[in-house]
Amino acid sequence: MSEKSCRIIGIQHRIKMSAEGEARPTIVHISGKSTKLATEEDEAKFLSTITKGDTVAMALGGSGDYLAFSASRIADSVGATVLRVPPFVLAKERTERAFAKNKEDDAALLAIMAKEVPNLFYPVLDRDRDIILLRECFRARIDAMKARMACEQRIRQRVIGQIFCRTDGIFPEGGIEKTYDAAKANDAILQAVLKEEAKRDNDLKKACESSYVYQQVFGPIAGMGPALAGRIIASIVDIRRFEKESSFLKYCGVHVLADGAFARRRNGQIANWSGECRQALYLFVTQQAQRRPGTQWGDYLRKMKENLRERHPEPVEVAGVKKYTPIHIQKMASWRTATRLAEHIFREWWKCEREMEEVRQVA
């Protein structure tokens, strides 16, 4: 086989423009040489050059998921391979190799790792593409939902303006809300947006139901439907990004700080967790308070509230702030339940990945 058909390609994918307007091209390293891909069009052209025998090495997760999806599809069709390595493994290798102290050298480092320690990588398989596609479906659903809300707001403001600016000074029968409902029902743009949102909801439902993660990890959780599960899965994408449970909890924003308090936004501190994942976990837990006894997480939440009330039977005032009121107890119990749920997801998802990896190795 020729040298060209046995290439090892390291790719460091980057968002093409930083928030400050700085150009950040994707870097491709082949045979000791690095090339910069300044646009998505350049990336698409490069992908078309993947040939039989090539090995493409990338980092797992992050902005490169779409590129990994497309590269793996092409690789499958021509007989090449796309491998991805967890970020924490890449970080360790970076510290142990003298030339790779700077992240700018990641493309070259990935190529060397794929050659020397390929066992540290995971191949991109159908199940990985399913989750990447699920994330795309979730984002499309959020865009459609925001479009619907914006359209409804415009209609409402238009109705209010028309009513208060009537030249005859007479308010219509039924008031603003009735007029608003009628305007929504007759607005062609809103009806099209509602149809689009329904389609996106259905797409997300199908993507979740076909995903092994949803089937084995989230589906068995009572009350965890595609909307919430999709939000969590789309935020995490791949549990193999996280080496430790503590790192996963920090990413989800349900970890406990050094002072014993739960993480929350504070002035002067960076909230470096996933807002989508944190919100989804909290929404799920708060919904459990309304569920009948007999569900795992609803019962856990109620038990946690009982334990906290036993420990703090009466509200107290600390530094001018009231603590252990019913609302405070509810929030404490909810966050603790969210933490336990995140721990459950981490363990079950990793268990699922290990089992599937064992099956793949045997095959």
Automatic annotation (TrEMBL):
GO molecular function: DNA binding; transposase activity
Species of provenance: Candidatus Kaiserbacteria bacterium CG10_big_fil_rev_8_21_14_0_10_47_16
Pfam family, one: Transposase_20
Chain ranges of the Transposase IS116/IS110/IS902 C-terminal domain: 221-292
Superkingdom: Bacteria
The protein's name: Transposase IS116/IS110/IS902 C-terminal domain-containing protein
Transmembrane domains' residue ranges: none
One GO BP annotation of this record: DNA transposition
InterPro entries: Transposase_20 (IPR003346)
